[in-house]
């Protein structure tokens, strides 16, 4: 039996517990949705005021140089790079994950079209976050060159589909619904053995799962900064390109920020000789600047320590739901094997939506994903073992007292 006292003891022994003080969290709330929107770093409020009052208000346009607004995309990119196994100068922060996928997909397809013009298949997962599929479909329709998308169920389908004329594979490092974690090194090896290229979507792994993009010989990667990295709502996304690909082609959104000499105001585009060629236009400076508040917290520890705590917390959540809620019909769909598990835990239940609403009413914030999936994000920087205990106790109470049957929980909001 796992007890409340045991969870409190684990918190006392946790070497990352002090990092929770770096964040603002409402009193009485257990926040298990940091894999959708990360909590606010404490220093972000004062820093936002400084940006608005001093950099914008007092220094005005001089801040492009004085505050290095121009260098933000690469400077922050290098900080993110330390979390994903990237070398300096390989990563930028820019635009959204959706736009960045379009950029790197375009580059990957152009590289492949030059070497293997008959390869016309782009592979993605059926269970990927849908925007990835939408972008691939839109790209195929735009270029109108005979490409087609082929959807797979998961890693087990990969070998079979790679036997066809595959140009590019787009995969989520961690599945947004189930929490399944791909073995990046093994998958890259399989894909490269057939001369295809791979794009990794890191939205549900960056900041929660240790990885090494260079050591694993990845090709391209994109991902959010507003989830585990705590960059703020809709903060600009990351984009990484393996150095061997950077200067082979430039992406099609050839805006002036990606120009080799942007202030020459030349009439024709010439891409920068660096990762900056993946920039487009002027970036949202306030939103981008606040990303640094979250990144600096990560740099006080290591991804190995964060990953170790993540696994302990998800192990605890799974064990406690089994111990306290076994009678209520929750079906675990997240892998038990550490090798295959990201940093969120998902259960299927016929009344998943209503149960999540009842949990939120009790101060435990998780989220719901169709069909019938309750999803609980585990963010090691600001969650502890006792938080997990309290969350499962609230879940147990809701099920014991049938609180999820409240008619108000049947009403779907615009954002679920």
Automatic annotation (TrEMBL):
GO terms for biological process, alphabetical: anthranilate metabolic process; L-kynurenine catabolic process; L-tryptophan catabolic process to kynurenine; NAD+ biosynthetic process; quinolinate biosynthetic process
Keywords, in A-Z order: Hydrolase, Pyridine nucleotide biosynthesis, Pyridoxal phosphate
Catalytic activity: 3-hydroxy-L-kynurenine + H2O = 3-hydroxyanthranilate + L-alanine + H(+); L-kynurenine + H2O = anthranilate + L-alanine + H(+)
A GO molecular function held by the record: kynureninase activity
GO cellular component: cytoplasm
Binding positions (pyridoxal 5'-phosphate): 97-98, 129-132, 201, 204, 226, 256, 282
InterPro entries: Kynureninase, PyrdxlP-dep_Trfase, PyrdxlP-dep_Trfase_major, PyrdxlP-dep_Trfase_small
Keyword Hydrolase: yes
Required cofactor(s): pyridoxal 5'-phosphate
Keyword Zinc carried by entry: no
SUPFAM superfamilies xrefs: PLP-dependent transferases (SSF53383)
Residue positions where N6-(pyridoxal phosphate)lysine is found in the record: 227
Pfam families: KYNU_C (PF22580)
Annotated pathway: Amino-acid degradation; L-kynurenine degradation; L-alanine and anthranilate from L-kynurenine: step 1/1; Cofactor biosynthesis; NAD(+) biosynthesis; quinolinate from L-kynurenine: step 2/3
EC number per UniProt: 3.7.1.3
UniProt record similarity statement: Belongs to the kynureninase family.
Known role: Catalyzes the cleavage of L-kynurenine (L-Kyn) and L-3-hydroxykynurenine (L-3OHKyn) into anthranilic acid (AA) and 3-hydroxyanthranilic acid (3-OHAA), respectively.
Assembly: Homodimer.
PANTHER family documented for this protein: KYNURENINASE
Protein name according to UniProt: Kynureninase
Gene for this chain: kynU
């Amino acid at each position: 039996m796992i007890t409340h006292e045991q969870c409190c003891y684990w918190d006392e022994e946790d070497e990352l517990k002090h990092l929770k003080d770096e964040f603002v969290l409402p009193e009485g709330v257990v926040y298990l949705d940091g894999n959708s929107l990360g909590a606010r770093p404490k220093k972000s409020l004062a820093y936002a005021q400084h940006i608005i009052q001093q950099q914008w208000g007092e220094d005005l346009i001089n801040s492009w140089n004085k505050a290095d607004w121009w260098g933000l995309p690469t400077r922050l990119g290098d900080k993110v790079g330390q979390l994903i196994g990237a070398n300096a100068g390989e990563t930028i922060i820019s635009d959204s994950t959706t736009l960045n996928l379009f950029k790197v997909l375009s580059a990957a397809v152009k590289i492949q079209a030059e070497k293997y013009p008959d390869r016309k298949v782009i592979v993605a997962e059926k269970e990927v976050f849908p925007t990835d599929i939408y972008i691939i479909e839109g790209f195929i329709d735009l270029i109108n060159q005979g490409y087609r998308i082929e959807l797979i169920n998961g890693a087990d389908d990969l070998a079979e589909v790679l036997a066809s004329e595959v140009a590019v594979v787009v995969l989520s490092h961690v599945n947004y619904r189930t929490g399944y974690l791909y073995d990046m090194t093994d998958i890259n090896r399989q894909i490269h053995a057939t001369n295809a290229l791979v794009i990794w979507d890191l939205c549900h792994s960056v900041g929660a799962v240790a990885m090494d993009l260079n050591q694993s010989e990845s090709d391209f990667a994109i991902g959010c900064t507003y989830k585990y990295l705590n960059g703020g709502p809709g903060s600009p996304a990351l984009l990484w390109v393996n150095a061997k690909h950077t200067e082979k082609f430039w992406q099609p959104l050839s805006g002036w920020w990606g120009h080799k000499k942007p202030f020459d105001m030349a009439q024709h585009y010439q891409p920068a000789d660096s990762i900056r060629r993946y920039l487009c236009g002027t970036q949202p400076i306030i939103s981008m600047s606040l990303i640094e508040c979250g990144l600096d917290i990560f740099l006080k520890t290591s991804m190995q320590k964060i990953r170790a705590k993540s696994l302990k917390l998800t192990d605890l959540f799974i064990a406690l739901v089994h111990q306290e809620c076994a009678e209520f019909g929750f079906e675990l769909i997240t892998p038990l094997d550490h090798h295959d598990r990201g940093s969120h835990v998902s259960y299927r239940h016929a009344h998943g939506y209503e149960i999540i609403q009842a949990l939120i009413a009790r101060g435990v914030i998780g989220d719901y994903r169709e069909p019938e999936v309750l999803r609980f994000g585990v963010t090691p920087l600001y969650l502890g073992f006792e938080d997990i205990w309290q969350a499962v106790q609230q879940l147990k109470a809701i099920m014991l007292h049938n609180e999820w049957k409240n008619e108000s929980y049947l009403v779907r909001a615009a954002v679920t």
